[in-house]
Structures are given as structure tokens and as C-alpha cells.
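Task: encode each sequence below as C-alpha cells.

Item 1
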Amino acid sequence: MTRVTVQPGAEQPRHSHATSEQVWLAVSGAGVLLIANGEEREFAAGQLARFSDGEVHGFRNTSEVPFLYLSVTSPPIDRGMTLPLEHQRTAAYRRDTLWVAALVHRISGVLLACFLPIHFLALGLALEGESRLDVFLRWSNTPVVKLLEAGLVFMLAIHLLGGLRVLVIETLGWQPWQKQVVTGAAALATGAAALFLIRAM
């Protein structure tokens, strides 16, 4: 167990412990916990906070008096091996919903770029003549292609909604409700793809 005092205006930078979890008990004072994705959460005397292994955490004293908390770590940490977040590699952030949303947004962009040559092929066949285009259209009317087209609609919806999310973050800053928006966007994209597939079949 460690007794920690943070002076007014002082900050413990975000960090994590790869193989240990911590429990903090706020004894006196108030401030904000610094957690993943730039989020902050109020933390004051009488409150308890638990951080699992690999979970990002830190603290800033926003009050005018020293902040005191007790930290219980299991298993104990070798302090020489604890590094600030910017100096260590951790995969804990990959469990976050918004990181998954950002990853899907990027993958959908890559897959859409891969689709462009097929789109240009169809346009080229249309210019070469009606018969060649008809052959291509008959091939594209198979169930497998219809399924791939539904996937394309899903990727388009995900990429569009993901781009709007980034625009909101850049314009309005981080808001806690964005995780719910991400879930809603995924459901909307899935619904759009399912509707397309039903109509196509």
C-alpha cells in the first residue's frame, strides 16, 4: 500500500502497469482521473477507483489543497519498470469501443479503395459495347456477388458515419455520448446492408 500526496495544480501523467492492478482510495481533496482516450473523471475524497492491468490512468489535482489517496497494488510493482504512457507499449487501448470504431473506419476505407478497380472495369465495359457489359452484369447477378455488394453497402455506411464522427470530434471535441453514437452507427450500417441484401435477393 502506498500513501500518495498530489500538490494543487500538480499532475501524475497517464500511465499503465502491464501486470498489476491498482485500487485508489481518495482520502482528502479533489481532482480528476486521467483515463484512456483523453477522458477525465472527477475523483474526490471518499471515492474509490480500480484500474485493471494495462488500463491507462493518471491524476490531476484541480483543487487548491493537497490531494491525498491510498494506492493498493497487486502484485506489487517494480517502480523501476513503470514508465509514462508515451514510453511504453500497451494493447489495453484495443479493448476500447472507440479504438475499434477507428480501426473499422480505416479498414473500410482500404476495402473501398480495392473496389474502385472493379467499378472502373464496369465503366470500361460499358464504353466498349452493350454485349460485353451484359456478360459482366449477368456475372454480377450471382448470389455471391450480391452478398459482396451488401458488404460494400455496409462499408460505405461505416466509412461515411465514421467520417462524420471524426468531424464531430474535431469540431466539438470529445463528448462521453460518442460511444453510444458509435454503437448506433454500427447498427445503422448493418441495417442498411441487410435491407440492400433483402431487396437484391
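Item 2
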Amino acid sequence: MTKLGSTRAGTVLGIVGVLLLFTLAADAQDIPSGPIAAERAVVLFEGGGFALQERVPLRTVLPPFDGLPNDGLEASGFWYELQDIEGRVHYRRLMGNPLRIAFEGPDPVGGENGAPQSPVRLEYIPDRHVFSLLIPAASSGDQLVIFSSPLKPGAQNQAAEEVARLDLLPIVIP
């Protein structure tokens, strides 16, 4: 093969590889850009556990599918996934932890002899909290899976793990 022929072959293989990557990414995300059937899942956090309180069907444009870092490190933070019965991820969304309330302000202990103090960061995890998550319309057997760094003050940078797996039974609309 001539040098020109091997260059063309390399270019063609490169283009095929890029197209394959785009195809695999599109299959993994599988979320159209226009309005689709979706659900607002209302989740109750109480006593350290999660429960599905309500599901509201709607038509909307969903935010894009989020990936996780592939650098070999454990991910920290808060995200949720819509998984099918076999555990395949159909939708993933990273977000700020709706349970972690943080405040930066004066130290409640106070300074020495009334001297001003540097601000301190205070964190709080409420005993009870309700929040909502937007997901594509669920199919029979789908589950809403929630991941979080440990739910304790100061632990937001620790590795996240599954904290809830909620069954999504079909919604019957009369």
C-alpha cells in the first residue's frame, strides 16, 4: 500500500471510529431534544430513608443525559438515574444535593472579647425534606435510583453510593 493509500485508510478508520462513538453516545442518551412524555417524581426524605410520594405525568423538554467521570476515581456528589429492570441506565442527572443546607456566616460561638471573627461554613441535613426529580416517563419495571455522598455535614466530597432504589409502577391515566 502506498503512503497516500495508508493515509486515506487511516482517515477513513478515524471517521468510522468517530461516527461509532457518536452512535454509542446517542444510544446511551436516547433523549430527544423536543418535548417528551416525562414525570415529576416527588420524593420524601424522612428518618434517613427515601420514599416516592407522588408522580406527576407531563410533557416537557428534559435536560440532557449526564455522564460520570471515567478517570478511575469514585464520584462524589448527588445524582439520580432511571434504570430498567436489568439495571441499564436510561437517564442520569447530576444535581446539587437537595438535602444539604449550607450557610456561611458568623461563628455562632463568637470571637474573643467581642472581636470580629472570620465567617464559618455551617451545614445541616434536615430530618425531613421533600424534593422533586424530573425523569422520562417510566416503563413497567423501571426504578428511580438515587446516589449521594454520605448524608452528614462535611461529607460532600466523599464517594457517593446508592442511597435509594424506588420502584416506578405504571401510572394509569383514566
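Check on item 2: The CA atoms of residues 26 and 32 lie 10 Å apart. DSSP finds one helix and nine strands in the chain.
End of task.
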